[in-house]
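Dig into what follows:

_____
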Amino acid sequence: MEVESATLTIDKRSAILAIATGGLIAGTLDLTQACILFGIRVPFGIAAGLLGTEAAHRGGAGIYALGVFLHFFIACSAAGIYYAASRRLRFLVENPLVCGLFFGAAVEVVMGYIVLPLSALHDRGPYELHDVLVGLGVHMVVVGLPIAYCVRRFGR
């Protein structure tokens, strides 16, 4: 009984560590690149997905903090999804480079073509090919790879 309990505790701790580390690294890299490319007001745009454009851009520090929180919530959710999938699909852990790149692309596609259209922004495109390719490339590297490698490293 004690061995099972200890194993469960270690598994739970490694899951939390893998998800939190992957989500925080991916979220930090993604938010940093977004602020460099689009300006420091990016968290207002993220909050606008929940509150709407007018309410988000009228807000102050609280709205900004909400945008940052939402961004990291999404990044940690993505890490949680990858971690959960990796428990059944062991190749996700064994091949983090290829799987991380594909996962990053999948995150970009889901965000751009499902989440944003359903959000308060109702952003449906059409998108410029250059913007789509840059978004895919960036998310493959700054979201997919950190999550995949953190799950490999910490998610025993």
Q: What stands out?
A: Helices lie at 2-38, 42-51, 53-58, 61-88, 91-94, 96-118, 129-154. The radius of gyration is 17 Å. The mean pLDDT is 92.
